[in-house]
Write a structure and sequence with these properties.
single chain; 311 residues; alpha/beta; six-stranded mixed β-sheet; three-stranded mixed β-sheet; 9 helices; 35% helix; globular
């Protein structure tokens, strides 16, 4: 891989985690590193709920990326659980990438994460690489100021600017993260594997992403997607399989249900088409997607419902 800093080294394999405040470009960077869409990306902050692993395999290393929800000051029980997931993940990885978008000034959210990481660096020596994301959105002067601000924010093992959108320095990010991985007799996952997420989880994420596209801000936190069943359609001709996928989309209020369904069901049909195309690309076969929108009142604050919906 070009830009790799690991030549003439023994094979290395391990886990890296990208952290950053919501919408810092973590999922987009994961996808760029893996070279295929694995994590869901959305212009809405706070959309990644599952620890999705993207896997980068080269001749010299295998970097397993764990993409966590954004660390933030929690307002709900769900928010607290998401932060716990992040902290647990940070203790288990070999290297941490701290994403700080170049098109936004460093703010209280970044300082909050920097403090958490400083504690972690002291408690369990974990290398932290600061990554200036979204460099395609700023000029050189602004980028230089951003890099100085990052340097002053904490004590980082390395600072790397990159743009996941135009591919600038993405290989460099992979190489720098990989340089902190432990040596290994070989890859941890078979070559060609891009993620170890079960298919149902990835299908749910694709439906969630399609449902979030272009809707108002109150929806992201209130949306949960559960794949009820996936069954091959019986009696299909040889070589033309069809998979029936039944999915429930849960919202908290009837007003949100109306937003998802849209006038005369138009929006839900659009969501279904977009999600189905993504699912077919993921599974490599034709899919019949059956979407149902249901109300689970105030599920984000109800421990029983959180458990039922997989949190």
């Amino acid at each position: 891989m070009k830009g790799s800093v690991m030549t003439d080294m023994p094979y290395a394999a391990g886990f890296a985690c990208l952290v950053g405040r919501p919408n810092a470009g973590k999922s987009t960077l994961t996808n760029a590193l893996v070279g295929q869409k694995v994590a869901i990306t959305s212009s809405k902050p706070q959309t990644t709920r599952h620890t999705i692993r993207g896997i980068v395999t080269t001749d010299q290393y295998q970097l397993v990326l764990v993409d966590t929800p954004g660390l933030h000051k929690p307002r709900t029980l769900l928010g607290e659980r998401l932060n716990d997931v992040v902290r647990e993940t940070l203790l288990e990885v070999d290297v941490i990438g701290f994403c700080l978008p170049a098109d936004q000034r460093i703010g209280p959210g970044d300082s909050f994460i920097a403090r958490e990481l400083a504690e972690l660096q002291q408690a369990k020596r974990r290398p932290v690489v600061a990554i200036a994301t979204k460099t395609d959105r700023v000029d050189r002067q602004r980028l230089a100021e951003h890099l100085i601000a990052i340097d002053q924010l904490g004590s980082w093992d390395a600072i790397v600017p990159c743009s996941a959108v135009d591919g600038t320095q993405v290989d460099e990010v992979a190489g720098v993260l990989a340089s902190y991985l432990p040596s290994s007799p070989g890859p941890l996952y078979p070559a060609g594997v891009l993620t170890d997420e079960p298919e149902a989880v990835m299908i749910a994420e694709l439906v969630r992403e399609a449902a979030l596209e272009g809707v108002r801000d109150e929806l992201p936190h209130s949306l949960a997607v559960v794949v009820e069943e996936m069954l091959p359609r019986e009696g299909r001709p040889e070589g033309k399989p069809l998979l029936d996928v039944r999915v429930n989309v849960f919202v908290e209020r009837s007003s949100q249900k109306a937003i998802i369904i849209g006038r005369g069901g138009a929006r839900l049909r659009e969501v279904g088409t977009t999600a189905r195309q993504g699912i077919e690309a993921l599974l490599g076969q034709r899919v019949h997607l059956d979407l149902h929108v249901k109300i689970a009142k105030d599920w984000q604050r109800d421990p029983k419902q959180l458990q039922r919906l997989g949190f």
